[in-house]
Design goal:
Blueprint (H helix, E strand, L loop, with lengths): L1 E5 L3 H13 L3 E6 L2 H11 L3 E5 L9 H12 L4 E6 L7 H5 L4 E5 L6 H12 L3 E3 L1 H9 L5 H4 L3 H11 L4 H8 L3 H14 L8 H14 L7 H5 L4
Length: about 230
């Protein structure tokens, strides 16, 4: 795949470029700030763009806002945000469009998992760090429906939001496929969500639930318009 990397740390940026090149991918361009990253995407039309959340010029959420601008211009392009911190302000709106990942930088050290995440995002799926999922699920206001989930169902819900298939969930939690199906069905019933066998639709169902219960009050357009 062709990749653009937006990262202000030269050491991390070059290390990531080398990792991807050695794995057989083409690094179309690298950028050290958010405006350069957006321009590089315009110039090279990559399959996936990787963006640090906190980048120059403001060193706040420039990368996340650049991601919104890129998503508005290229809806089908895969976007992976990297961060040392968890900032969920834009995550749900970007995730709603599919082809989105949010990973903590420490996870990049697990090379196979990172490359697998890029492939999922390129294919239109999601790749969320478990800690990001936990923040999305757990930082919202207490909700009676979420409170009805068992601890195991909460684990399954978190893995669903990561974009994992039932098979992937079963492997991660050392459960049988039938047991996972039972948990997923129970979660869908308790949260009043329409059940679906399609992974991306399952993730969108979880997102729709958060929209409907007030966790996220913005919209994809609010993210698209966040960058002047």
């Amino acid at each position: 795949m062709r990749v653009v990397i937006g990262e202000d740390s030269a050491l991390f940026r070059e290390g990531l470029a080398r990792l991807l090149s050695e794995a057989g991918h083409e690094v179309a361009a690298t950028a050290r700030d958010a405006p350069q990253a957006v321009q590089a995407v315009h110039d090279t039309a990559p399959d996936v763009v990787i963006l640090d959340v906190r980048m120059p010029p403001d060193l706040t959420d420039d990368g996340a806002r650049a991601a919104g601008r890129i998503r508005a211009a290229y809806p089908a392009m895969g976007i992976v945000m990297l961060s040392q911190h968890i900032e969920t302000r834009y995550a749900l709106a970007l995730m709603a469009g599919g082809g989105f990942g949010y990973l903590l930088k420490d996870r990049v050290l697990d090379v196979e998992d990172f490359l697998d995440a890029l492939e999922r995002v390129r294919a239109g799926g999601s790749a969320l760090d478990p800690e990001v999922v936990a923040r999305l699920v757990g930082s919202r206001r207490a909700d009676e429906r979420l409170a009805t989930l068992t601890p195991r169902e909460q684990e399954v819900l978190a893995l669903m939001a990561e974009g994992r298939t039932n098979v992937g969930i079963a492997q991660r939690l050392w459960l049988t496929g039938r047991t996972v199906e039972t948990h997923v069905s129970s979660i869908m019933n308790k949260l009043a969500l329409e059940s679906s066998d399609t992974d991306n639709r399952r993730v969108l169902a979880v997102i729709a639930y958060f929209h409907g219960t007030g966790f996220f009050t913005g919209s994809p357009d609010s993210v698209k318009n966040a960058v002047p």
